[in-house]
Amino acid sequence: MYDHRELAKAMDLFHFEEHSPGMVFWHPLGWRVFRAIENFMRQVYEAYGFEEVRSPIALSRTLWEKSGHWEKFGENIFVVGSLDNADSSHVSPDYALKPMSCPAHIAIYEASRRSYREMPIRLMEFGMVHRNEPSGTLSGCMRLRQFVQDDAHIFCLEADIENEIRNFLNMVSEVYKAFGYFDFTIKISLRPEKRLGDDALWDKAEAALIDACVALGYAYKLLPGEGAFYSPKIEVSLEDHLGRSWQCGTIQVDFNLPQIFDLSFVNNDGDFERPVILHQAVLGSIERWIGIVLENHGGSLPLWLAPVQIAVASISDKSVEWAQTVVSKLRRRGVRTELINRDATISKKIRELSKRKIPLIAVVGEMEAANGTVNLRRFGVSTQEEIALAQLEEEFSHSLSMIC
Ligand SMILES: [Zn+2]
User: Fold this and answer.
1) Which of 69, 122, 130, 131 is catalytic?
2) Catalytic residue among 149, 252, 280, 309
3) CATH number of the domain that 203 lies in?
4) pLDDT tens digits along 16-27
5) How many domains does the chain have?
6) Looking at residues 119-127, what average pLDDT do you find?
7) pTM confidence score
8) Is 15 among the residues known to form the active site?
9) Which position among 54, 260, 287, 289 has the lowest Cβ density within 10 Å, counted as fewest Cβ atoms?
10) Does residue 274 sit within a domain?
11) What is the DSSP string of 137-155?
């Protein structure tokens, strides 16, 4: 059984500080893992027709009051205030650190006059959000006060909803498989007793969620009464190696915020029509996702995620120059490469590198330098092979392109 906090310490990935509870200090190696996930997700979102945006993390209190988050999220919102000139002990809460990106993406939608021709408009952001969780509930990366989520909003016509939900389920399946997760469970939360909007809209939204699951052959569990007051939703949960269930992906059909913000687009007849908003996240919190993945893999991350993908060690000073050439060639290809240049015997270097679970170790001596090759060892495999540098570069671009 692994604890992601201990693995992070052993692997030098990140740490926590008492002065910033619930917030992660990413070290260089940990940030590499974070960026590998971000880059992978960026490519997936682009493939599914999303445009990446970036919005401020602090937004006016009045906006949060309008969206209803101020009231709903209340004590979980971090306020940002300015000091009162007359009374410096008084802080007026003018802004809130965003707990989610919805109002910011609505502002981007509202910045232009929209036509049915450009719908659906799919916006996504690696949104840094803050939620003031009680200190007793904080737990490593699994529950934080500051985290980044893949926060996406689709502005679409009612007729698009089912197709967008199918896309979401396909994305979930594709992304989870890339991390080695082939099973996930789907729950559909239906209308609660207290709700906004008329029943005809709820009928449509719930039917769209259910029909998309049926069309793709996914089993699902219905949770009557569990939906948000403004929308029904799908929640995707993943089971970890201890059998714990983590809610990660979600998609919600929202008729409420478009109404509150009076959103519109010009339809085929030249009239104004209201769009629907779908809120979605595939991974949810990236920090929590990393925690789950670290514990599941016991820190031995697959090649495409490993903070150091290959370590290059020279046998003696005579082969250092070739080792440096290998490192710079691989780095130019975007391979996360480490040069091992310590004064130690090669067997000691290899022992240390194996302990760090680095997927590939390339040993180079005078013979490899003369041949333009490296002697390659793969983690968990006892054999070695001599392989030309060009072939190694080719292997990397092939194996990484299969994921990213
Ligand atoms: Zn949202």
Assistant:
1) 131
2) 149
3) 3.30.930.10
4) 999 999 999 999
5) 2
6) 97
7) 0.91
8) no
9) 54
10) yes
11) G-BTTTB-SEEEEEEEEEE
